[in-house]
Amino acid sequence: MAQHKIFIFDTTLRDGEQVPGCKLNAGEKIELALALENLGVDIIEAGFPVSSPGDFESVENISKVIKNATVCGLTRAIKKDIEVAAAALKKAKRPRIHTGIGVSDLHIKTKFNSNRDEILERAVEAVTYARTFVDDVEFYGEDAGRADLEFLARVVEAVIKAGATVVNIPDTTGYCLPHQYGEKIAYLINNVPNVDKAILSCHCHNDLGLATANSIAGVMNGARQIECTINGLGERAGNTSLEEVVMIIKQHESLGLYTDIKADQLNPISRLVADTMRMPVQPNKAIVGSNAFAHSSGIHQDGFLKNAENYEIIRPEEVGADSSKIVLTARSGRAALAHRFQKLGYNFDRDGIDKLYQAFLKVADVKKEVGDEDLKALAANNHPEVAIA
Ligand code: KIV
Ligand code: ZN
């Protein structure tokens, strides 16, 4: 059923690392790059080599150790940037230069004080120049999400003619709605005559919480690469979450898509990135949050205990998470309480649980979560005839 591979372009070490407080040292960058390769990402965007000597060195070091993935360096559409990126990527087995320029009228006027024709010329020059160093050149049209569609199509056609192997369509400000982003990709697929000579890539930011939905809309309409980060780290509200798009593609076989990501590495790498980048993951984060497989309300707990599939669409072990948790709170029911007592080694009948349940609710109303020690105390107080397990 799965026919089309979606290339996973990880930019945790570039767009993710731009986040204040997430700066990595050279050793940390290498450790994460190796973990990303092990995860199965196709492309690692290792940094922006011209931005600092440290970043140059990191891209250079990562290029030396990565064996299978493509290593990519970011540049602006500036000759010096491209030369520096090419030098940093010299030892890479599969080097890619990622160059580009703003293509929305807002960026053209207020960032570059320029016009569409000049920007088009600079885009073509940058790609042509980058191709003199490497065979694999990705072009990004910054703020493509808000760019004029006909102009964007002209740019895409021109950069592919100049040798771009991948064309990135960033929704830099996270502005698009999913159907708009999908239609943008579909328009390019249908209106750029040489589009079959390159891969279109989705690079979506999360300012409206739509990065994942937009990336999926992009690949449903013909894009074949997603740019994303572990835990959705990135500028402002972040980038597309790698773990989310990978699991959406895996769960929805009817999309006819697949990735080469080893899903059981998703939670371990999420923890590694969170610790190394000092950026904790919100508990309710899809796939990798600490509550992603926790059940706390009575209705859900009862249904989950009867059949896990009632309330879980992914098995935790599939994504390398700890096993599902039943959290005992004031919203929990008798089924969950009986289950936990059983796990602790007690065997109360229905009446026994009924008696304990009232006492449990009193504790639960005071405490946020009722733990095993609380339960043992409840058992001892309410059923002194039962030996403590
Ligand atoms: O968000 C963006 O437009 C970018 C580009 C530099 C690819 O990160
Ligand atoms: Zn970005």
Note down, in words, how this protein is organized:
The protein is α/β, with parallel strands linked by helices. It contains 15 helices and 12 strands. It folds into 2 domains: about 5-275, Aldolase class I (TIM Barrel, Alpha-Beta Barrel); about 295-380, no CATH class. The chain has helices at about 10-15, 25-40, 55-65, 80-90, 105-110, 115-130, 150-160, 180-190, 210-220, 240-250, 265-275, 300-305, 335-345, 350-365, 370-380; strands spanning about 5, 5-10, 45, 70-75, 95-100, 135-140, 165-170, 200-205, 225-230, 255-260, 295, 325. The strands form 3 sheets. It has an 8-stranded parallel beta barrel, surrounded by 6 helices. The mean pLDDT is about 95. The structure holds 3-methyl-2-oxobutanoic acid and zinc ion. The site of zinc ion has 6 residues, from loops.
Q: Layout of SSEs?
A:
Blueprint: E1 4-5, E2 7-10, H1 12-16, H2 26-39, E3 43-47, H3 53-65, E4 70-74, H4 79-88, E5 95-102, H5 105-110, H6 116-131, E6 137-142, H7 149-161, E7 166-171, H8 178-191, E8 199-204, H9 211-220, E9 225-228, H10 242-251, E10 257-258, H11 266-276, E11 294-295, H12 298-306, E12 325-326, H13 334-343, H14 350-366, H15 372-382
Parallel strand pairs: 1-10, 2-3, 2-9, 3-4, 4-5, 5-6, 6-7, 7-8, 8-9, 11-12
This protein binds 3-methyl-2-oxobutanoic acid (KIV) and zinc ion.
